[in-house]
Amino acid sequence: MKEKKYILFDLDGTLTDPKEGITKAVQYSLAHYGIEETDLDMLCPFIGPPLRDSYINFYGFSQEKATEAISVYREYFCREGWAQNKVYPGIPELLGALKNAGKKLYVATSKPEPFAVQILEHFGLAGFFDGIGGADLEETRVRKGDVISYVRERFGLLRDETGRDLAPDIVMVGDREHDIIGAGEQGLESIGVLYGYGSRRELEESEAARIAESVEALRAILLGEML
User: Cα(146)–Cα(210) distance, rounded to whole angstroms?
Assistant: First the structure.
């Protein structure tokens, strides 16, 4: 993986731990429908997948009800949930080392792009990235494969000046199967991280090329260092 020049990072569960903000926003939205969920750990499965899918799959919401729930969710998230977040220890140092090694770094997240930019700027991470791409608020671009395609097209990561496909030079880093599957749809290799919210089993079954148990292990994989 050390030969990869372009590195795409997921945001939630990979760069930052968004548990408090996301789960409280989901809790707030469920309360709107008279659903009381006091254990925030029960809402962690919402971290990573598109929100619409989670409302439908976990609570049986219809498409219309899920759309409304997302609007209610954003009431809380826009107000305070976005800042209820923590940068994983070692991430700034990892990003700095990658930049010093000449890597080009990008964010590819299913979180709406304006929120992603706001979070990365707030926590002092935005400056490490050559581009930040995410979902749109209208939800026409929310699945990870679509976001990765958008990032590649927007930031010139499709072909080099000779017309060569840049896919072999790109790796996607994420903590959930959606990151790994989305990368595969775009012909990219991927690294799954276990310090986020995905399990080893889901990362292996979705065919991550490598799995990193820690930020330190991720750094070793990306830079070819010995642990």
Answer: 22
The question of whether 169 is a catalytic residue gets the answer no
Residue 51 CA to residue 115 CA, distance in Å, equals 14
Tell me where in the chain the CATH 3.40.50.1000 domain(s) lie.
6-17+86-223
What's domain 19-83's architecture?
Answer: Orthogonal Bundle (1.10)
**Residue extent(s) of CATH 1.10.150.240 domains in the chain:** 19-83
List the structure tokens of 40.
């925030």
Query: For every one of its 227 residues, what pLDDT tens digit does the chain have, with 9 covering 90 and above?
Result: 889 999 999 999 999 999 999 999 999 999 999 999 999 999 999 998 889 999 999 999 999 999 999 999 999 999 999 999 999 999 999 999 999 999 999 999 999 999 999 999 999 999 999 999 999 988 889 899 999 999 999 999 999 999 999 999 999 999 999 999 999 999 999 999 999 999 999 999 999 999 999 999 999 999 998 66
- How many helices (H) and strands (E) the chain has is answered by 9, 8
CATH number assigned to the domain covering 6-17+86-223? 3.40.50.1000
Q: Say which of 10, 12, 146, 179 is annotated catalytic.
A: 10
Cβ atoms within 10 A of the Cβ of 163, count?
7
Q: Which DSSP category does 158 fall into?
A: S
